[in-house]
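Appendix B. Worked example

We walk through a single record from start to finish. Start with the input: the chain for TDG/mug DNA glycosylase family protein, Paenibacillus forsythiae, length 173.
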Amino acid sequence: MNPVEDHLDFGLQIVFIGFNPSLRSGEVGHHYANPRNNFWRILYRSQLTTRLYDASEDGELLKLGYGFTNIVARPTRGAEDITREEYSQGRELLRAKLMKYRPQIACFVGKGVYTEFSRRTKAYWGFQEGLEPVVDGVREFVAPSSSGLVRMPMDEIIGIYRRLSEAARSDLE
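Next comes the structure step. The output line below is what the pipeline stores for this chain.
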């Protein structure tokens, strides 16, 4: 199965970073394509987007200043199928992407994505205040996973993403 193409460019406000694509995303070639994944609903309900987008429109979000990538490119059934070697390689590739494109904010979709990338043992919801970013000049935001398996109440998840939305709007002012 092919990796899902990154949507990256210079001048992006936010790059959303996941563990890796789901099998469904690998089949259709779009980020967050599993119908049980709440990513697109979360973006809309947190006011990061003004309408509900479909996974097939992921490339359109570049126009909004949002990009997409993953720490590991290989689609799997779950993050538990990712090998240590893939994480090691993925960390270096992700660091290089962030250094090249320099988005304002790197939004890690899940604490585990952030801890794998940063090699830190703890992460907090929201901006990682008081910590040196892995890539100088790129603010790090940790948001809950959008997987349908997450047990956190949806309103709480949306509230965390709304903080990202508010920060993004204030950055534009």
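Two observations about the output. The two ends are 42 Å apart (CA to CA). Residues 154-172 form the longest helix (19 residues).
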